[in-house]
Amino acid sequence: MKLICVSNEHEMSLEASRLIGALVRITPDAILGLATGSTPLGTYGELSRMFLEENLDFSCIRTINLDEYIGLDGSHPQSYRAFMAGYLFGRINIPPANTFVPDGMAEDIEGECRKFDELMEQMGRVDLQLLGIGANGHIGFNEPADCFTSNFHCTELTEDTIEANSRFFDRREDVPTHAITMGMRGIMNARRLLILASGKKKANAVAEACFGPVTPRVPGSIIQLHPDVTVIADWEALSDTGLFEEAE
Ligand code: PGA
Known about the structure:
- By secondary structure, this protein is α/β, with parallel strands linked by helices.
- It has one domain (2-234): Rossmann fold (3-Layer(aba) Sandwich).
- The chain contains seven helices and ten strands.
- Helix 1 crosses helix 2 (41-54).
- 2-phosphoglycolic acid (PGA) binds next to loops.
């Protein structure tokens, strides 16, 4: 695991966008696994700027997203399809047909999950999977559980997650209770994982995921089994790791 410690969220976003930008230049037909939430916002902003000002070309890039809320149409402002359109896809030159986000309104949710498993098989390996981490240790919407789940699946969001995500909705009751998420096989099959974290709220999750036991109780801990992981985190997010204790 490569750990890049930065001073704040802005630096985290710059580092992440440099890495992703370099991949896009070197491999113009790369497959990117993408994440939503507050964490990647700055990274997407910077990638959009690189498209506008530095001719970063996304025309042959393909993307697959980790997850989507069940019950929200892609046009709902809090859907992850709308998030991606607003913060990235609508700001760069990626063809819409190259972007894949599960459909949270699919009549057959199980069928939608199988469709995404098959899609991943057909696309080939994801070159880089971008991940945030929940304060409860989740990656994608793989919530703490008794076992890791391999495939795309429907998951019930934990109270912690619903509470954390309620900041984006008018009322807590409006937060969907279920989501479709990529499972651990899809995540772990990527050639490279890039995990971002900033702020004190993530400190415990980062410490547990990077240095605690590998357990489905802390889903993010599975990254320790991946051969090519880069974590970019700020001081606050690393504050529970014990890495930066001052010498007595
Ligand atoms: P956040 O969420 O980026 O909004 O903090 C991360 C996550 O829950 O994976």
